[in-house]
Design goal:
By secondary structure, the protein is of the alpha+beta class. Helices cover about 35% and strands about 15% of the residues. A hairpin with a 2-residue loop joins strand 3 and strand 4. Helix 3 crosses helix 7, helix 5 runs antiparallel to helix 8 and helix 8 packs antiparallel against helix 9. It starts with 8 loop residues before the first strand and ends in a 15-residue tail after the last helix.
Length: about 350
């Protein structure tokens, strides 16, 4: 039975686990609506019981996501709005690979045919295990240490993942999107972007250790409960790239104050925990200031692109690009200053 206020469906008289306690007002995006009959038909592909409850959840802004409870447990149903088969093979295969190596992350479930995704309402769709915990709005030392350690374990486990995916938001994308957005960028903006691209020419990217990375590990892509990490979610931008770039993305979100300055103590918590599992090389520490700058540029342009060219859908939510424009300017002005890693040094 459909609840007209929440849009969710409930089987009459059934017992089910509670969904995430997130108000409908902050749900992000649903581009493809799933009706109850469609869901029931789709579930017949799996050995995951019968549907008890499902409704849209705040889990990313590029796909359609639903919290799904069945008689077998809690899951996330994701309909992918823009990914190719090759990209889905990489993203979902990586998650299975990481789970098999005890990395805490969301796990896609195979259907009876052994496939990680199939078609629902003309979209590729997957059912992924729902992790325990909630988003930590203000990560403290405990959460910073936990995510730093888990990112290192993620990187180590990803090094023997057999598939490859180029960074979909790498330098080639930045150049192309800058051209697309030119009329929406001031002359100052365009000069700042050009300066960052010139700075990127001075770094030997091939000298930086590479692995499978998350590439979008903001604090709202990790769940915590009672001082423990429930796991890492949202692998839409997972790809093969440098470990230090992934670290930069994390630091630019988890370790900043209200003015986008890095908080030295927070950076030290993350890096110290990371290096307990994987030591950073000298080349990575040297490249970190530029990676922080490029990571800020990537999210500035992606948010601006989403604002200028929004996808159509229900409950759509566009994030403000100005934060990362300001962060990019700040990171650019600090290029000559070493990042305070709290006493961390490159291995001798």
């Amino acid at each position: 039975m459909r609840n007209p206020e929440t849009g969710s469906y409930h089987s009459r008289g059934a017992n089910f686990a509670p969904l995430y306690a997130i108000p409908l007002a902050i749900f992000m995006s649903v581009y493809t609506t799933v009706e109850l009959d469609q869901l029931k038909q789709f579930l017949r592909r799996y050995d995951l019981g019968e549907a008890v409850d499902f409704k849209p959840v705040a889990a990313g802004i590029t796909n359609s996501n639903y919290a799904l409870d069945t008689t077998a447990g809690g899951f996330i149903l994701t309909l992918y709005e823009h990914h190719s088969d090759d990209e889905l093979d990489y993203m979902l295969g990586l998650q299975r690979h990481l789970v098999e190596r005890s990395v805490r992350c969301s796990q896609p479930h195979k259907d009876r045919r052994g496939d990680l995704y199939s078609t629902l309402n003309q979209r590729p769709a997957a059912i992924i295990g729902r992790l325990p915990g909630d988003i930590c709005a203000k990560p403290g030392p405990v959460e910073l240490a936990l995510i730093g350690a888990e990112l290192a374990r993620f990187h180590l486990a990803g090094m023997d993942f057999g598939s490859f995916r180029d960074n979909p938001r790498g330098l080639d994308w930045i150049i192309a999107v800058t051209d697309m957005l030119r009329e929406h960028l001031s002359n100052t903006d365009q000069l700042a972007i050009a300066a960052s691209l010139r700075a990127a020419r001075d770094i030997d990217f091939d000298a930086l250790p590479k692995t499978a990375i998350h590439a979008d590990l903001f604090h709202d892509n990790a769940l915590f409960t009672a001082g423990t990490l429930g796991g890492i979610i949202d692998f839409d931008y997972a790809c093969t790239d440098s470990c230090v770039y992934d670290i930069a993305v994390l630091l630019n979100d988890w370790c900043i104050d209200a003015d986008n300055h890095l908080i030295d103590s927070a950076v030290a918590e993350v890096i110290s925990a990371y290096q307990q599992h994987r030591r950073l090389q000298a080349a990575e520490i040297e490249a970190l200031p530029l990676m922080l700058r490029l990571a800020a540029l990537r999210f500035w342009l992606s948010r601006l692109y989403d604002k200028v060219f929004p996808l159509s859908g229900d409950l759509t939510y566009i994030k403000d690009p100005d934060q990362f424009r300001d962060m990019h300017a700040l990171r650019s002005s600090m290029m000559s200053q070493p990042i305070d890693l709290g006493g961390t040094r490159a291995p001798g």
